[in-house]
Protein: REP element-mobilizing transposase RayT
Amino acid sequence: MSEYRKAHPDELYFVTMSVVGWLDVFTRNEYKDIVIDNLRYCQQKEGLEVFAYVIMTNHLHLIVRRRDKELTELLGRFKSFTAKKIIAAIENNVQESRREWLLYLFRHFAKVNKQYVGNHFWQYSSHPTLLDTPKIMEQKEEYIHMNPVRAGIVNEPQAYVYSSACADSPLKVMEM
Structure:
């Protein structure tokens, strides 16, 4: 991985993780909950500090930092683990009307990119962007919180449950 995309310990980053082909996987709460559960695990066991987040239908944005350890490595493990869990959830969800189509596309993207065996869920890069000034931090936090509004999902950022803008969010975040 190029030095440009490495995320160093103790630095604050804006991160985006997108599903291959921009597939709308996160239209179902059970798949979003897998992401939340694994972010919570990373907070408790891996030193991940989450300051802002949103889970959209086909991607998620985070403002994060990892104390004393490299963030890029953790994001890679996070993506691998969540991909396996979400694909298994799709395979086992008898009410998933898009099951065959989604699984076909995950296999297709794995064939296109020889790095992956079987299925390919997340796009390769998480695009870590260093947040080195308060102004940039505020811009990225606003961008994250306004994402569901711009997408027409809600009228106010605090109404979207899978976002740190919502007081009832299932994932607790740190103050910036």
The first strand starts at residue 13 and ends at 18. Residues 109 and 120 are 6 Å apart (CA to CA).
